[in-house]
Write a structure and sequence with these properties.
The complex is a heterodimer of chains A (306) and B (310).
Chain A lengths: L1 H27 L7 H19 L3 H23 L4 H21 L1 H4 L11 E3 L2 E3 L4 H23 L2 H11 L1 H6 L4 H27 L9 H14 L4 H21 L7 H18 L12 H13 L1
Antiparallel strand pairs in A: 1-2
Helix pairs in contact in A: 1-6, 1-9, 1-10, 1-11, 2-3, 2-4, 2-9, 3-9, 7-9, 10-11, 10-12
Chain B lengths: L7 H32 L6 H19 L7 H30 L8 H22 L15 E3 L2 E3 L1 H23 L1 H11 L1 H6 L4 H27 L5 H16 L4 H20 L8 H15 L14
Antiparallel strand pairs in B: 1-2
The chains are: A mainly alpha (306), B mainly alpha (310).
């Protein structure tokens, strides 16, 4: 039972890092990205390939995984800069499919649909950590969650964060206030995909195996669901969303009743979450309510008139 | 003259295949472009309506007849199933709009988009639960043996796809350009508020737009089902590519969607033949086209670039 809980917390941690990254892109900057899974995949495969072929230490490979993912974020960020919400969504969706196609077809490097197995165990102070060492893994991964949380918090509470939120609210107004929207949008993409890459690297090192089908469109939707459910543009909400969605997704699988409950039911649940949250609670479960300045001004005027 | 080192007869063959594929993309793209023209958002669930159209056609067709017997009843029941698929899809399209999109019409831009993704996932998985995930074979209602025309060959189904596609698109163009309802649709897409002041019931027009777009997608679904079988995720890739076709032609523009679809069909066929792109990477062509068109001419090939004003 404790093992089971620890595995759950490991997955919650990995997904939290990815969803904190996505929240920066979608929640704070208002750019709908549907390829977070592709960035996670790039991070995971970078880790897997480097560790199996060179035997470099994981602690050197992990930053490389993050940087590779953020370079691909830059790659998708530059052409899609000029795109508005909907076009961007499609372009990122397409990018996600291209990455998956590449991984499946580039046999010589990625081992194709079979994926890469036998990634060497991570060495921590001379102790080899395998998939069975759940407690150390949980601690390591939650360490990364706290670092990510802290970094993202520092970003969004700074001038940069205010610029990102201004872009989300009104891009034209933001640029007329002197915000270089292109720079900040690309920056959001790079940072968000960096964290996705870190999440992917941790995933690869923990499970010691990667396969292309893990990182499909549904994974992107799951991460998106997490931030929508928790509340767009709030960091603690992204983590809370990850807790709920991972519990919903993995509990049947880990209890071994996933053959009784078909996986489609889970996905229908995610779809319902997206639709229902948008209609009934767009600010998410613990999101901030938007301040309606127009209403406040109106009320004040009415008060003055009295 | 020998372009790209392809014999002339093969060139004709590839053009024909590309046109058939393109006609299907066009039919689906029309739904995206019409909805975008009026509501300014991408109906992500459109690909799933295409899939449901194929399924509903399939089930009525096999309920009414056993296609292997042949004869005129098979043809009649095929036509009936196409009509049934169109009507059912139109109803589903209108329901989706009513339930998932209408409450969000005044919400921020991100909201209907996320809702549409949700609807798409729900429909795809419901179909997988209800109909099973294994692909279902949709037999031709006629003898689909290849007709040889000199060195080029064409199948009766290709002829049907081209003919039906042409008729549907011409009909839609006439409807939008010449009828009063079409005029109301154009007015609504220009400015909803002013249109409603002119006595147009905007909600009815939006429902009608969803109905027409969905019916066209259903036709495309049945037509393609005979070539590639019916399965729950068939709408995902087809929907994405049709959307790309709509963007290529200039989203919101009906003629643009038709031309964009044909163009994308030809590009995909020739990408495999000329550039030697492996079959597994075929889908990459469409996405590269999307990114290039968005970089070079984001408003599409038919529309002038318009700068957004405050």
């Amino acid at each position: 039972m404790t093992d089971f809980l620890m595995v759950l917390f490991i997955y919650i941690g990995i997904y939290s890092i990815a969803s904190l990254g996505l929240n920066l892109i979608v929640g704070y900057t208002g750019l709908l990205s549907l390829c977070q899974a592709a960035f996670v995949a790039i991070g995971a495969y970078t880790t897997a390939i480097i560790m199996t072929s060179t035997g470099l230490s994981f602690w050197w490979v992990l930053p490389v995984a993050g940087i590779t993912a953020s370079l691909s974020g830059l790659l998708i960020g530059i052409p899609t800069l000029r795109l508005k919400g909907d076009y961007l969504a499609i372009a990122t969706l397409g990018f996600g499919e291209i990455v998956k196609n590449l991984i499946i077809n580039w046999d010589s490097v990625t081992k194709g649909p079979m994926g890469i197995n036998g990634i060497p165990a991570v060495n921590l102070f001379g102790i080899k950590l395998t998939i069975l060492d759940k407690l150390p893994w949980m601690l390591i991964i939650w360490g990364f969650v706290f670092i990510t949380y802290y970094l993202v918090r520092r970003i969004v509470r700074s001038r940069i964060g205010r610029a990102l939120e201004a872009i989300r609210e009104d891009e034209i107004a933001a640029s007329s206030m002197g915000i270089n929207t292109a720079k900040y949008k690309i920056g959001a993409f790079i940072t968000g995909s960096f964290f996705a890459g870190i999440a992917g690297g941790l995933y690869a090192a923990y499970t010691q195996a990667v396969a292309p089908n893990t990182f499909d469109f549904m994974m992107s939707v799951m991460i998106l669901c997490m931030i929508v459910l928790g509340g767009l543009g709030r960091n603690i909400a992204a983590v809370a969303g990850a807790v709920i969605i991972v519990l919903a997704e993995f509990t049947p699988r880990l209890l071994g009743i996933s053959n009784i409950i078909p996986p489609q039911l889970n996905q229908i649940l995610f779809g319902l979450i997206l639709v229902m949250m948008m209609i009934y609670r767009p600010q998410g479960l613990i999101g901030r309510k938007k301040i309606n300045y127009a209403a406040i001004v109106k009320k004040e005027i009415l008060n003055l008139e009295k | 003259m020998n372009l790209f080192n392809i014999p002339a007869n093969e060139l004709l063959q590839h053009i024909l295949n590309g046109l058939t594929l393109g006609a299907i993309y066009s039919l689906i793209a029309l739904g995206y472009t019409m909805v975008y023209g009026i509501l300014k958002f991408i109906n992500f669930a459109h690909g799933e309506i295409f899939m449901l159209g194929a399924y509903s056609g399939y089930y009525l067709y096999y309920y009414l007849c056993t296609p292997d017997q042949g004869g005129s009843w098979v043809m009649i029941s095929f036509i009936l199933s196409v009509l049934f698929a169109m009507i059912l899809s139109a109803v589903i399209g209108m329901l989706i709009e009513r339930i998932a999109y209408r409450p969000l019409r005044r919400a921020p831009r991100l909201a209907p988009l996320l809702s549409a993704i949700g609807v798409s996932i729900i429909l795809m998985n419901l179909a997988a639960l209800a109909f099973g995930t294994e692909p279902k074979n949709f037999s031709y209602p006629f003898d689909n043996s290849v007709i040889n025309m000199g060195t080029t060959s064409i199948t009766p189904n290709q002829i049907m796809i081209l003919a039906v596609g042409l008729i549907m698109m011409a009909g839609l163009k006439l409807f939008v350009d010449r009828t009063k309802l079409g005029k109301a649709m154009r007015a609504t897409s220009q400015n909803q508020n002013v249109a409603s002041l002119m006595g147009i019931n905007v909600n009815v027009i939006i429902s009608l737009t969803f109905a027409i777009g969905s019916a066209l997608a259903a036709v495309a679904g049945v037509l393609i089902a005979m070539e590639y079988k019916v399965y729950p995720s068939m709408g995902q890739m087809a929907g994405l590519k049709a959307f790309i076709a709509a963007v290529v032609g200039g989203i919101g523009n009906i003629s643009g969607a038709m031309i964009g679809g044909i163009l994308l069909g030809l590009l995909e066929t020739f990408g495999v033949v000329i550039l030697g792109i492996p079959q597994g990477m075929k889908d990459t062509i469409a996405f590269s086209v999307l990114i290039i068109i968005l970089l070079v001419k984001p408003s599409g090939i038919l529309i002038r670039n318009i700068r957004e004003k405050v």
